[in-house]
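go over whats below:
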Amino acid sequence: MDWSKQFVRYIIVMLLQVLLFDQLQLWGVCHPYIYILCLLMMPINLPNIVEMLVGALVGLVMDVFCNSLGVHMAACILIMFIRPYLIGSIVNDKDRLKEQMSLRAIGMEQLFRYVLTMVLIHHLTVFLLAAWSWQHMGFVLLETIVSGIITTVVIIGYNILKYR
């Protein structure tokens, strides 16, 4: 794994998130968080503590730019905690995974299930913590579904373009 390419991808995705996607507030319910692409496509052979620290750092950077008081950090740590278990349940043959999750490594169906599951967990966590109330649960679910679909399409689209 070329760490310099990985780091450049992180910077580009974070800049796109902060400068472009954070400005998109489509229909008042769509807040695409494409920055989790960096976390979802991380190398799979990293120790769990490194994954958690990277998740915390990425979440912290987003919290600083979004002024969201730890919401993104909590969601990123949660998905990085769940990630190894989800990969184990979705990918039957882990030996196929050379270095990272990708369309080429696991195929479209498994990649779609992986990305959609992780995106929905992340978005539900972010929107629940941001709402801080069960009174707005309907709106939180709507935000999670709409934003999750858009984010999933962008992440899958990135993988299609990268590995076609």
About this structure: The longest helix spans residues 137-163. Residues 3-38+46-163 form one domain.
